[in-house]
Structure prediction request, 288 residues.
Amino acid sequence: METHSLNIDGLNMVYSVDGDKSAPPLIMIHGWGSFKGVWRTTIPALKEHYRCIAVDLIGCGESDIPRHANVTIPKQAERVKALVDSLGYDKVSIIGHSMGGQIALYLASQLIPDRIEKLVNVAGVAHAKLTKAAERDLSTIKLAQYIPAVFTSSRLWCHTRLYARLFCSHWLYDLDNPDVEFWREDRYSSLRPKSHRVMYSAWEAITACDLSDHLIKITAPTLTIFGKQDNVVPIESGYIADEHIPNHQLILIDKCGHFAMYEQTETYLSVLQAFLDVPQQTEKGLDT
Prediction:
């Protein structure tokens, strides 16, 4: 896997590339407080057939974290488009998770609808709403605006099972599946130093961008995947996508929360590979 960066408006946006250079491109966009590593179970299953390009959005992962940054959904989408343009692709497929799904929906409905081959929306925010449980994360972010040490101290013990249970229980359906060590890096990345500078603005951006009335403009074949027990993004977002996107398939996975790629990896990959025309195993445990 190669890591590169693109300078956009004086900010460095880091992205990784894996897979054959001649394969069709697949742009991968993570969610709020997340990073490109969220695709670590996805890329190995696709890289023989797709050029997998996973981005760290501005304010996240290894990308720059400016003190005052425009991290609205339209602006982050424009940055992803700039990456696509810089790589010289006329057409791409896109997969986005959570806020990344919202950005992908924005790209497909308003920014570059004619340049998207296929669209995958994993627990993406379609109607600018998050759950009450997810709002607990916002409380921590608000506090960190005034006491940055909140992030520093949290980072010291975020690797523990106790931290996971106290602060991340709404992320997954079952905190023991996968094991807490498997998603340790995700917790660590969400507490990256100085990231609180943009996370509050990014939260406001999510809840300010209702795409419900724009989804009908999406022309690309679209797959939406939701965990039935998602306690971060209301499953209603999946139903809204299914109602408004013309060429759409909705897959609901049981015993699964917000991270289908971690919690029900086999089922998630089976659905994803089938949609992307990648050789895959028999589908299990699905509702369509």
Observations:
- The chain has one domain: 2-287.
- The longest helix spans residues 73-86.
- The longest strand covers residues 11-18.
